[in-house]
Amino acid sequence: QAPLMESGGGEVQPGGSLTLTCAAPTNIFTISTMGWYRQTRVKQREWVADAAPDGRTLYSLDIKSRFTITRDNTENAVRLRMTSLKPEDTGVYYCNADERPYGQGDYWGQGVQVTVSP
User: Fold this and answer.
1) What is the DSSP string of 19-74?
2) 10-residue block means of pLDDT along the chain (118 residues)?
């Protein structure tokens, strides 16, 4: 069983919003930079955003100001709140847990589909 559990994908109209959630085991979550990547029709898997254990967040310029990544330390989860969605945001979104430099694990979720269409 994959250690990362994603949820929250679906279909919305342009301008709509979705929130993706990724839950991880405590031993992985506490030391990992938790991130989201996506694979779209025109791009291979690309980095979207990540949140480090200390709460620092980084965003791709493509989505900055529309998406917000947050860590929920009580639920060992990371969420990606996506707003003002565009058709080009359509794709499969993957959660990643990178334990470096505190560990050596690098884990991926199975991906959730996000579809933005009229």
Assistant:
1) EEEEE--HHHHTTPEEEEEEE-SSSSSEEEEEE-TTS-EEE-TTTBTTEEEEEETT
2) 89 98 96 97 94 96 92 97 97 97 94 97
